[in-house]
Design brief:
The complex is a heterodimer of chains A (114) and B (525).
Chain A: H1 2-20, H2 25-45, H3 71-102
Chain B: H1 7-20, H2 27-54, E1 61-64, E2 75-78, H3 80-101, H4 111-127, H5 131-149, H6 155-186, H7 191-197, H8 203-224, H9 232-239, H10 242-266, H11 279-299, H12 303-323, H13 327-356, H14 362-372, H15 376-386, H16 393-410, H17 416-430, H18 438-466, H19 478-496, H20 498-513, H21 516-523
Antiparallel strand pairs in B: 1-2
The chains are: A mainly alpha (114), B mainly alpha (525).
Membrane topology (chain A): Multi-pass membrane protein
InterPro entries (chain A): CPA3_antiporter_subunitC (IPR050601), NUOK/Mnh_C1-like (IPR039428)
Subcellular location (chain A): Cell membrane
Chain lengths: 114, 525
């Protein structure tokens, strides 16, 4: 379980960083999105990973602190998702404005000669 | 009156939200509301500063939201450092706001609400007592700053803004990684609680926790524009409109504030094996930043970028001074920060006024001409005819202001810039009875050489703007010159009142270097 999550986060981060360093604005925004997914998973996993556990309570059982998942990382990840969603949307607008103003989708606003 | 602590967040939040209701047509209403809110912030921040100063040396004012115990709930903490930052933010905010009334607030949509949210984010970041809310307020502040950096639109701003936003989004993700590593190891995000637990972290977890803190530090240092993660700064600040640039220059100080607060809190003497972690990196990074900033100051051909380079130099100076880890040096660094925030804010506002009267590209031509020595003779002949022409009064005023900024930033007497650098250097040198360590020599050289670089660059630009080819004097409104004059007058005040101010800074530094008071103040039942 840990290995799967770790590899997933690693693949997302790797692809995200690679895309972030690409010259096209669309690739950059995809890279940022992938990175934020990786970070969200990472935050989520700091609460500890368990397989086969009940989401809130065991059937028929009473609440016991030891069987509950740590709620704080979940709260953190919700906040982080909302914030990264909003900022990505904002970035998208700026990206479109840059495309309209400069006429190119290069991050520097002009094409470089190869 | 305990609720006054939350006022710096509530006032701009309410004002900004209310302004969104009437829409763009009710301009007078919006402007009035915004100005009232910003002015109220200055008063509140002043009151809080007095309150923080009246409290005992190690005492902090705690505000628990919903009255939850500190380890579970959200807390706001007011100590001398946060009070000082609140005052700086509100004063600079008022100056930039008044300046914007002349013209900039009509250059695009929603300037006033964005400005209020910017102030809210700044104040929140200064007041919050836990890491995750620090993240949230950073995001509020950054989201507003994206809007302000793009205010006025135009290709240059959008292009610079694109880079700025991409870098800050990536930095926010780094911030989150750091926060979650710290939570995973220490099990808390409250700064005071974290500091209390630092001592008892298991040996095998300590490296992981330090990694988390280092990752968090990188996120702050990107904001503070430390070399090599500060290349975004001159472009963005240079392209932004003047009032936005003035308030953005404070954003890089938020990075410094976070490092100052967290590093001294978490890695003070009570941190066990981690005490002093990363101090050398702050010092070396600060020195590299000063070197890079000084080169940028010398190399730049544009006034706004020059001011951006000055921000980098100022960040580097603060980091290097912090890295020394001595109470008296930190006190001096706080004085330096106050002086340089005001001076750089004034400079950004001033530059726009000066550049208004000049044709585009004049800077570039002037520097190139100087480098190649072309056209010097012709100019000499032209100048003969202009002798005796009185400099229009406004140019004289602007020139005086520019000179004051140059003196402040280069650290020359008689203004507070000199006192600030002296306050950093004197304790550094004073402690070395048996020969100074190499790092002290390096800081000494870096501070003095960066001052020299600043002076050369500012003189060159100033001669060019005020003495060579003045053209028609710029048309400047009263509300534009007043904020600049106000900021510079505050610097003069800092110089005249240096004794009491330094006393406050030293108390602040002493409190920061003895985090036990902060911890017990926040964690009290």
């Amino acid at each position: 379980m840990e290995l799967v999550v770790a590899i997933g986060i690693g693949v997302l981060t790797g692809s995200g960083v690679w895309l972030l360093l690409r010259p096209r604005t669309f690739q950059v925004i995809m890279g940022l999105s992938l990175l934020s997914y990786a970070v969200n998973l990472f935050i989520f996993s700091t609460g500890g990973l368990r397989t086969g556990a009940a989401p809130v309570l065991e059937p028929g059982g009473v609440g016991d602190l030891a069987t509950h998942a740590d709620p704080l990382p979940q709260a953190l990840v919700l906040t982080a998702i909302v914030i990264s969603f909003a900022t990505t949307a904002l970035f998208l607008v700026v990206l479109l404005a840059a495309r309209g103003l400069t006429g190119t989708d290069h991050v520097d606003g002009r094409e470089h000669d190869r | 009156m305990t609720h006054l602590v939350i006022a710096p967040i509530i006032i701009p939040l309410l004002a900004g939200a209310l302004m969104m209701l009437p829409g763009e047509r009710w301009r007078t209403l919006r402007t009035g509301l915004g100005l009232a809110a910003t002015a109220a912030l200055v008063v509140v921040a002043g009151l809080l500063l007095l309150r923080a100063d009246a409290a005992g040396a190690a005492e902090v004012q705690l505000y628990r939201l919903g009255n939850w115990p500190s380890s579970f709930g959200i807390v706001l903490v007011l100590d001398r450092l946060s009070a000082l930052m609140l005052v700086l933010a509100s004063v600079l905010g008022l100056a930039a706001h008044v300046f914007a009334l002349a013209r900039w607030d009509r250059a695009g949509a929603h300037f006033h609400p964005l400005f209020q949210f910017q102030l809210m984010g700044l104040n929140g970041a200064f007041l919050t007592g836990d890491l995750f809310n620090l993240f949230v307020f950073f995001e509020v502040m950054l989201a507003a700053s994206y809007g302000l950096a793009l205010h006025g639109s135009g290709t240059a701003r959008v292009r610079a803004g694109l880079h700025y936003i991409a870098i800050n989004l990536a930095a926010s993700l780094v911030f989150l990684v750091g926060v979650s590593v710290i939570y995973g190891v220490a099990g808390t995000l409250n700064m005071a609680d974290l500091a209390a637990r630092m001592h008892d972290i298991a040996a095998e977890d300590r490296a992981l926790l330090e990694t988390g803190c280092a990752i968090l530090g990188v996120a702050f240092l990107i904001k503070a524009a430390m070399w090599p993660v500060g290349f975004w700064l001159p472009g963005t600040y240079g392209a932004a409109s003047a009032p936005a640039a003035a308030i953005l220059s404070l954003l890089s100080k938020v990075g410094i504030y976070a490092v100052l607060r967290l590093w001294l809190l978490l890695f003070g003497d009570g941190a066990g094996a981690s005490a002093g972690f990363g101090g050398m990196w702050l010092m070396l990074g600060g020195l590299a930043t000063i070197a890079f900033g000084s080169l940028a100051v010398l190399a730049t051909q544009n006034m706004a970028r020059l001011a951006g380079a000055c921000v980098i130099v100022s960040s580097g100076t603060l980091l290097a001074a912090l890295g020394a880890g001595q109470v008296a040096v930190t006190g001096g660094a706080l004085f330096y920060m106050t002086s340089s925030v005001l001076a750089i804010g004034a400079l950004f506002l001033l530059i726009e006024l000066i550049e208004r009267g000049r044709e585009v590209g004049a800077d570039v031509l002037a520097v190139t001409r100087e480098a190649f020595g072309e056209g010097a003779e012709e100019e000499y002949l032209d100048d003969d005819e202009e002798i005796g022409v009185a400099i229009p009064a406004i140019m004289a005023l602007l020139g005086l202001g520019f000179m004051a900024c140059a003196l402040l930033l280069a650290g020359l007497p008689p203004l507070s810039g000199f006192l600030a650098k002296f306050a950093i250097l004197a304790p550094l040198i004073g402690t070395g009875d048996d020969g100074l360590p190499a790092t002290t020599w390096a800081v000494l050289a870096a501070l003095i050489l960066s001052g020299l670089a600043c002076l050369i660059a500012m003189t060159r630009v100033g001669m060019d703007a005020f003495w060579a080819a003045p053209g028609p004097p710029p048309r400047v409104a009263m509300v534009e010159i007043l904020p600049v004059a106000g900021l510079l007058a505050l610097c003069l005040g800092l110089t005249l009142m240096a004794g009491p101010v330094m006393r406050y800074m030293h108390d602040t530094a002493a409190g920061l270097h003895a985090p036990a008071g902060y911890v017990s103040g926040v964690m009290r039942p």
